[in-house]
Write a structure and sequence with these properties.
The chain has about 150 residues and is an all-alpha fold. The chain is built from 8 helices and no strands. It folds into 2 domains: about 80 residues; about 60 residues, Tetratricopeptide repeat domain (Serine Threonine Protein Phosphatase 5, Tetratricopeptide repeat, Alpha Horseshoe). The longest helix is centred in the N-terminal third of the chain and has 21 residues. It is elongated and about 50 Å long. The protein starts with a helix and ends in a 10-residue tail after the last helix. The model has no long low-confidence stretch (mean pLDDT about 85).
């Protein structure tokens, strides 16, 4: 049990080091750090990809974060967390085609994912002229998440 705690502490420390490296504003340093961690800790690869994307996002390295998430999804296809983080990054880069594709993938995996339905609905309403389609997604989200302030409109 102590060995597991030591590994967890090590990974937490290394993730924090990566985030501190992000503040140096050097995307290559960030990516190299997390790549080395994934190599030595393959069981934690998914979480390390997510941490790397967050570190890159924090320093406005959106394209690098998008590239990183593409690599992560090739190893972990259809992981909803990776897809949703890529949605957030795609929105920043105005890549609505990737955003929509990833949200539709999440919805196909989990048709009751109110957050994905709501995000897709509001994105379509705000960024396209596909208003009826947007309304359909938002109404589905409202049924699934009636008490969620992000979904309610009253």
């Amino acid at each position: 049990m102590e060995n597991i705690k030591s590994v967890d502490r090590y990974l937490n420390t290394q993730t924090r080091i990566g985030i501190v490296a992000a503040r140096t504003d050097n995307a290559a340093t960030i990516s190299n750090h997390f790549e080395a961690l994934r190599h030595t800790n393959p069981k934690n690869g998914l979480n390390l990809y997510l941490a790397e994307a967050e570190a890159l996002r924090e320093t406005n390295h959106y394209q690098e974060a998008l590239d990183n998430l593409g690599k992560a999804l090739s190893s972990h296809p259809n992981d909803q967390n990776l897809l949703y983080v890529r949605v957030l990054i795609s929105e920043r880069l105005n890549l609505l085609d990737i955003l929509e594709k990833d949200l539709l993938t999440i919805i196909a995996i989990d048709p009751k994912n109110g957050e994905a339905l709501n995000t897709l609905g509001y994105t379509l309403a705000n960024r396209t002229n596909r208003y009826q389609e947007a309304l359909d997604y938002i109404q589905k989200a409202m049924l699934l998440l009636p008490n969620d302030a992000a979904v309610r409109y009253d």
